[in-house]
Specification:
Elements lengths: L3 H5 L2 E2 H9 L5 H7 L4 H5 L6 E2 L1 H15 L5 H5 L1 E5 L6 E8 L2
Antiparallel strand pairs: 1-2, 3-4
Amino acid sequence: MLKKSHIMNNMEYRGFWRHLGIPCITIGIFAKSIKFNPNSIINYLKRETMPSDIVVIIILMGEMTNNQLYFERPLEKINVILNKTLGGAINGGLSILS
């Protein structure tokens, strides 16, 4: 069951590390899965909290793993338009490939 507090508020960085353990992935694999630069994820350590969109993604990946569903295939279908300088998505940048 998803904890409402994780979605409504930013998750602390160490909580994010715990959630990475559910699907047994590293920061590098997580970043590659969502088409981010791993350093972009690591840089959130300076803030001490993770943005809500990243929190939602890692919690859903964990829930999928707990329910024996593969998160890799759906994520591969998402086309992310990357910002050349920062490595983040532009204008929402996500679209589902058909």
